[in-house]
Amino acid sequence: INIDCTNTKVALDYEIKLNAEQVPTNLKFYTDDTYTTEYQNISGFIGLDDIKTKDHNIYWKWDFTEDDETTDWSNKNIVVNIKITASQRIAGDAAW
């Protein structure tokens, strides 16, 4: 996910929320490519003088299971919603 606020002239906070509504129980999401840090919401700050782009990767791993998942997931949609919000910081806020 690329956050790009190149043309803004404000400081901002952002948050990336992932909602895995319809996924197999052994399908997990991670914030690192070694699959050690399970995904939780990502939040960050972009200041007035900061580089105005931020990249965040979300990794997923569907572990093998001995259970037959064919009937549960064959020809079915896996639904994952990602919501990104950004909020402008007002002059005078901490770390503005």
Describe the protein in words.
The model has no long low-confidence stretch (mean pLDDT 89). Helix content is 4%, strand content 42%. The protein contains 1 helix and 7 strands; from the N terminus they run ββββββαβ. The chain starts with a strand and ends in an 8-residue tail after the last strand. The strands form 3 sheets. Strands 4-2-7 form a 3-stranded antiparallel β-sheet, with no helix packed on it. The protein has 96 residues and is mainly β.
Helix content: under 10%
* Biggest sheet features: 3 strands, antiparallel
Total count of helical runs of at least 4 residues = 1
Strand content: 35-45%
**Mean of pLDDT:** 89
Write the layout of secondary structure elements.
Layout: E1 2-4, E2 12-22, E3 27-30, E4 42-46, E5 53-55, E6 59-62, H1 70-73, E7 79-88
Task: Kindly summarize this structure in a few lines.
The protein contains one helix and seven strands.
